[in-house]
Amino acid sequence: MEILEGLTPEQREAVTHGSGPLLVLAGVGTGKTTVIARRIAYLIAQGFVKRPSQLLVFTFSNQAAEEMLDRAFEWIRYAALDAWVATYHSVCERILRENAPLAGLPPDFKILDEWSQRVFLLDHLTELPLHKLRPQAFRRPLSFLSPVLAFISRAKDEAIPPEEYRRWWETHEGSLAPDERELHRELCAIYEAYQELLLREGMVDFGDLILRTVELFQRHPGLLSEYHERFPYVLADEFQDTSRAELRLVTLLAGHGNVTV
Questions:
Q1: pLDDT value at 26 more than 90
Q2: What would the DSSP string read from start to end of 197-225?
Q3: What's the domain count of the chain?
Q4: Which of 52, 57, 130, 238 is the most exposed place for a label (fewest CB within 10 A)?
Q5: For residue 131, what are the domain limits?
């Protein structure tokens, strides 16, 4: 079979793996992405999926998604173009727009990039519950907002919504030094206020795309089951670089067990 030409025995075994979980252990530059691309072609060519659109493939950049499709196109031509090959954020945006009411969002929600987040919070600075951090926030707002937004982004990457952060603070506040306790209390309040402002304005940031999708599936297992049927095979390229939120997303969508990482 042309799809398997030039592969090592180990690569061939990975590409032709049938149903069930598949873990591909490979160092940098040893052809793991090639294996993923050829596996896409193999699963489609051999009828493991009824339609190419039943394949869901996560990548880390739009360029990587295009390269993956280009490689698969060599073997299965236009069928490759129907597969869902996209970044985590792109996949989540599409899922959220398809299920906006369930996610508590307007269908035309706006996505804020890093710069837009700063502008957004600058516009709402007086609405943030600032106490100890207030002088710094109003004296040098941009230098104040950068680390705050980085902190919130890191929390979302770790799949920690505001309510979970508050539970952590309430559990540990007695063991924290006074200054540290007050800092976490204020950061928690700012995080909560930021999320409420976004919701009020019908907006999300990039971290929300994945976190809200994870929360959507956790709250609506019936919907998750529909996506299991829609995507009976899930593949993730560069899986070693996933954040905790991305890991949870893949784990949820691959609940049927047909996952390649």
A1: no
A2: HHHHHTEEEHHHHHHHHHHHHHH-HHHHH
A3: 2
A4: 238
A5: 115-201
